[in-house]
Amino acid sequence: MAELSWVEIADRKTGEKNIWSCHFDRDDAEVTIRDRRGGEPYRKKVTDAEMEQFKCPKPAFGDFDVLIHIVLDVLRSQGYGELE
Looking at residue 60, what DSSP letter applies? Predict the structure, then answer.
């Protein structure tokens, strides 16, 4: 199994990096969210079920569909919303 531990979103139009990030710490069962569009960074404890969304079968070389699906699910579940 592969495990996603960090998601960063950048704005390709402006070149601004890291406008939104989500860091998952399995040892502490905690997610840290930083949203530079407004608001303060926050941390929250996650359940076992929420921790499972960060895992997937190890993808084959060049197979990005599974990883994209996971990243989109994390964005939606952690409050970023839909990508434009």
Answer: P
